[in-house]
Design goal:
Length: 364
């Protein structure tokens, strides 16, 4: 039987780790809750398995524990935020809350943020707007990872897009990388010793890589590497590679260009001055009429999709259905955590002097 871990215990453990790094109690709790929320919704690639990455960024000085985001340019419906290299989750919540505030006052809010850090999943921030009764959007650029169509090395990021809109029985949430998979999923496969499926990672822009060699992952963020993630659509225009490439370009425009910060090929994980950029949008459908009627019609539309005839043994899902089911399952039965991630939490705790034995006792 698969071993599961109580989400409240894991949250407390992760919170203790960030507190040991010098974050105050409120910020440590917020960071831990956003990380565990991702695991609860079944997105293990960006959940607790990312703690080792944040720990590494803190050691490198890329994340500043005491920094705080601030507005550097503003209008009634827009703002530019400087994250000052604070923890990405804290910058993201600050920026999206600002967009929500503007949308509630003026119907629309858009925030471009620079000098931030990895903030988890884009959908989390879009969903904050949906929880506020608004339509939400968020995106972020990253270090160079995607090999553009016909190129021989990575230049754009995985550049995910998150969109959320209120509906019943749960919000519609669309959250995807513009590469075939996010880097975090490659990390999970390598941790589990699985070969990477075709058209996830490419070498020299053309040859798919079938490997579970950790050196493949190491090359993904190296600006000089010829190994990179494949755009949505694969490595050829014949299969639609230009579509994922183009979507990533849109993300770069809404993040690095509008924020007047770094674009993906200027970002380096080890350079504490090369922060990433993000965008946050909140929209009040009341701009178009009766908001309740719009959401009711949208919910009925989603039900029509779910009711479509499906291939034998399958069903038609709407974006957000699987995440809602995962949440119910993990609240009831606990989180899934791979053995290597478990060991990473123990090692980080030892180094930081965190008393982790109570968490191990609860796990066992």
């Amino acid at each position: 039987m698969e071993k599961r871990y109580d989400s409240q215990v894991v949250t407390a453990w992760v919170q203790a780790i960030f507190a040991a790094w010098g974050f105050n109690a409120a910020d440590s709790q917020t960071i831990a809750q956003t990380i565990i929320d991702t695991d609860l919704h079944g997105i293990a690639s960006h959940g607790v398995q990312r703690v080792q990455m944040y720990d590494r960024f803190l050691r490198w000085g890329r994340i500043k524990q005491t920094a705080a985001p601030a507005v550097v340019h503003e209008t009634d419906i827009s703002a530019v935020v400087d994250g000052h290299f604070a923890m990405g989750q804290l910058v993201g919540i600050y920026s999206m809350n600002l967009a929500i505030q503007k949308a509630k006052q003026h119907g629309f809010g858009i925030v471009a943020t620079r000098n931030s850090n990895h903030y988890g999943v884009a959908g989390y921030y879009a969903n904050l707007a949906a929880d506020a009764g608004l339509i939400g959007f968020s995106s972020t650029n990253t270090g160079p990872g995607m090999i553009p169509t016909n190129a021989l090395k990575g230049f754009l990021g995985t550049d995910p897009i998150g969109f959320a809109m209120p509906a019943t029985p749960h919000h519609f949430i669309f959250d995807v990388a513009t590469t075939t998979v996010p880097q975090g999923k490659v990390e999970l496969y390598l941790k589990e010793g699985k070969d990477l499926p075709a058209l996830w990672v490419a070498k020299d822009g053309q040859t798919p890589v079938y490997s579970h060699d950790a050196t493949v992952l190491a090359g993904l963020r190296d600006a000089q590497s010829t190994v990179g993630l494949v755009p949505l659509g694969g490595i050829s225009e014949f299969t639609g590679s230009h579509k994922g490439y183009g979507l990533a370009m849109i993300v770069e425009i809404f993040t690095g260009i509008l924020a007047q910060g770094n674009v993906s090929h200027e970002i380096s994980d080890q350079d504490p001055t090369a922060g990433i950029c993000q965008s946050y949008i909140a929209l009040d459908p009341s701009l178009f009429g009766d908001k309740a009627a719009i959401y009711q019609r949208f919910s009925a539309y989603l039900e029509a999709l779910r009711a479509l005839p499906a291939v034998p043994g399958k069903r038609v899902y709407v974006h957000g259905d699987k995440e809602a089911a995962a949440y119910t399952d993990r609240i009831r039965h606990g989180l899934k955590i791979d053995a290597q991630t478990y060991s990473e939490l123990v090692a980080i705790s030892k180094r930081l002097g965190v008393d982790y034995q109570p968490y191990l006792d609860a796990f066992n």
